[in-house]
Amino acid sequence: MSKPEHEFFPVTGVAFTVCPGDDPKITERILASDPETGVATRILRYEPGADSSPMGVQEHDFWEEVYILEGSFTDLTLGETFSAGMYACRPPGMPHGPWRTDQGVVTFEVRYPA
């Protein structure tokens, strides 16, 4: 299976849902996904004050590209803050996070198989 085909549509019609980890301040809007592989295109939102520390450092078995649309967040392991206009490309197995934000952040992410 693969991601479904979509022609242009208003993404505001796709609801935000709470991400795995069950923190109501960390939500995602899944635009397209492949349930068999777990790869997805999504908008991720951390509300002000969100902290993913309970989920620990993240590592994935897929590629992940992230572009920050609004706000900023801090990678607590690196002690670095990343803000709107910045981009990351993470290969499978690259550790990142946990994250915290004071002002909130919105990212656009694409995940695909290794």
Description:
By secondary structure, the protein is an all-beta fold. Helices cover 0% and strands 44% of the residues. It is built from no helices and eight strands. It has strands at residues 17-18, 26-33, 40-46, 62-75, 80-83, 87-90, 99-100, 105-113. Strands 1, 2, 3, 4, 5, 6, 7 and 8 form an eight-stranded antiparallel β-sheet that branches. The protein is globular. The protein starts with 16 loop residues before the first strand and ends with a strand. The model has no long low-confidence stretch (mean pLDDT 93).
Short description:
This protein is mainly β.
Question: Can you lay out the helices and strands and say which pair or pack?
Answer:
Layout: E1 17-18, E2 26-33, E3 40-46, E4 62-75, E5 80-83, E6 87-90, E7 99-100, E8 105-113
Antiparallel strand pairs: 1-2, 2-3, 3-8, 4-5, 4-6, 4-7, 4-8
Keywords:
mainly beta, Cupin domain-containing protein, 8 strands, RmlC-like_jellyroll, 114 residues, eight-stranded antiparallel sheet, ChrR-like_cupin_dom, RmlC_Cupin_sf, 0% helix
Percent of sequence in beta strands: 35-45%
Distance between the termini: 16 Å
Helical run tally: 0
| Number of DSSP strand runs | 8
Low-confidence spans: none
- Biggest sheet details: 8 strands, antiparallel
Radius of gyration: 14 Å
Structural class assignment: mainly beta
> What shape does the CA trace take?
globular
What's the SSE pattern?
Answer: EEEEEEEE
Instruction: Summarize the amount of helix as a percent range.
Output: under 10%
Residue-averaged pLDDT = 93
InterPro entries: ChrR-like_cupin_dom, RmlC-like_jellyroll, RmlC_Cupin_sf
Organism: Amycolatopsis samaneae
Protein name: Cupin domain-containing protein
Pfam families: Cupin_7 (PF12973)
